[in-house]
Amino acid sequence: MHFTGTVYRNPYWPTWPLLEITQGCTHNKCKFCTMYKDVPFKMSPMEWIEEDLKELAESDPNARTIQILSANPLVLTYDKLAEVFEMIHRYLPKMEYIYVAGRVSDLKNKTVDELKKLKELGMREISLGVESGDGWTLDRINKGYHAEDILEQCHKLEEAGIDYWMTFLNGVAGRSHSHEHAVNSAKIFSQCKPMLVGTAGLTLFPGTPLLEEAQRGEFDPLSEKEMLEELKTFAENLTCDCCFITHHTVSGRNLSGPDFLKHKDQIISALEREIKHGDLDAMAAIRRSKRTL
């Protein structure tokens, strides 16, 4: 298999098989991320992709799911993605679900009709690294798109019938803009229909512009308690009925299942308990031990 660097995959999706069709990230400018810092973006040669599919056809000919790598393969044009997906079906004829991650901006080069055709080819679920719905925060962390872009592109997915995930990056706005980040993100997310909202807590990794700004006093990171308080504010203001997952922030994961609104009060109560009684020092130690997203 042609895995050209560190493999980052969604741990909640089936972990095998994996197929790398791109390398690196087209944007590669988010201030909190170094995942693909030294990896130029390019599409894998079709010869490599076909060789990998031949290998998968021998090792797992009955595969029904596949996760596409790397950072944002969704940025490829409809024609390129369709060509890859059709090849997947040739070598893995029982394929049903093709999982793809991407950026909100990756959807701009695709029409609703093209998205519908990609769904017919198996792309039924995608994960979007949204991070925030607050305009100030999106600009501050250099995401490369705006809140209205989130709404426009997510509504295209809804019209195409494709399920999607949205991520909220807890703490990324810093202390001075924490409340606005939580409330405005919840407002934007609530105008969408994600199947899942996942929250991750900011870790300031070496080599990230955000850490360098914090060291210069230009970014004011939240404490563990403040992270929990921000997450609670986000949950209180979130009104879309989805699966809700918290991780990287609390000592345990709060899983609501497919109906967040039904379990909303329980999740908020759990966060309140963490704020009052959680082992914040242990949480901070876990965060300090992390080396990458």
Automatic annotation (TrEMBL):
The keyword Translocase does not apply. Pfam families: Radical_SAM. Its cofactor is [4Fe-4S] cluster. The keyword Metal-binding applies. Residues 11-241 form the Radical SAM core domain. Keywords: Iron, Iron-sulfur, Metal-binding, S-adenosyl-L-methionine. Signal peptide: none annotated. GO terms for molecular function: catalytic activity; iron-sulfur cluster binding; metal ion binding. InterPro entries: Aldolase_TIM, BchE-like, Elp3/MiaA/NifB-like_rSAM, rSAM, rSAM_sf. This is Fe-S oxidoreductase. It comes from Eubacterium cellulosolvens (strain ATCC 43171 / JCM 9499 / 6).
